[in-house]
Amino acid sequence: MSLIAINTSQNVNINFNTASVGERILAFGIDMLIKGAYLLVTYLIFFRVFNLGAFFNTLDNWSVMAVIIIITLPIHIYTLVCESLLEGQTFGKKAVRIKVVKIDGFQAGFGDYLIRWFFRLVDVFSNSGVVGLISMIVSKNNQRLGGIASGTAVISLKNHVTISHTILENLKEDYLPVFPQVIALTDNDVRIIKENYQKALKSDDRQILSKLSSKIKEILKLDIDSTKFTERRFIDIIIKDYNFYTGKDI
């Protein structure tokens, strides 16, 4: 499992673990079980209940093929539809807690999912999936050919989340906010700020603290006296002030 750095719209890098080959195979297996269940139910309904086999006997081969394609269409477009509607996840990916994201930090769109789906013909269904497996093993971000072509990767969402990993802070009842300008930030902005702030504290990375502090000041147009607010204290207050004004636990 490797790390992938995604640059956000706030020009801050966040590191994610890429999904392992095992996780992706497990998600694929779950999706295949779902498709298999659909085929079984479809078979029982159309061939056992409605006796579609007798109807097929009245059709030519091309017509039979057309009916079969229509019946099995949900299986063929399952991945494309799920990833488009579930923001980069199929039901298998949801179960395993992995997700498709754009490497450049933007939300993957339908065009990206379409490219990934098209390349599945080569990655997954040619040579029993060997091409896709080799590509995931040798590529930098464990990407299939479809991921490389679309600029996407699959990340793991299995983080051990505690209250400290959210934007929620335990505030004292008499807490007084300092910077009302924080209401200009979004939940996602503050989440990104807090995640990087905590990482910088753990690694004692003063450069990240400095860049993060400067970026916040730039966005909120704040002119802060550095003698009164150290970078650590400033960022900590920003997070607490946002929580004070919004009271959101995300």
TrEMBL record:
Main localization, broad class: membrane
According to the UniProt record, one GO cellular component term is: membrane
Q: Which residues cross the membrane?
A: 25-50, 62-81
Query: Where is the protein situated, by its record's location annotation?
Result: Membrane
Report the InterPro entries cross-referenced here.
RDD
Its record classes its membrane topology as: Multi-pass membrane protein
**A Pfam entry, by short name:** RDD
Keywords assigned: Membrane, Transmembrane, Transmembrane helix
Q: Identify the residues that the record assigns to the RDD domain, covering every copy.
A: 18-145
| Name of the molecule in the record | Transporter
Q: Which organism is it from?
A: Kaistella jeonii
Ranked from the top, the taxonomy reads: Bacteria, Pseudomonadati, Bacteroidota, Flavobacteriia, Flavobacteriales
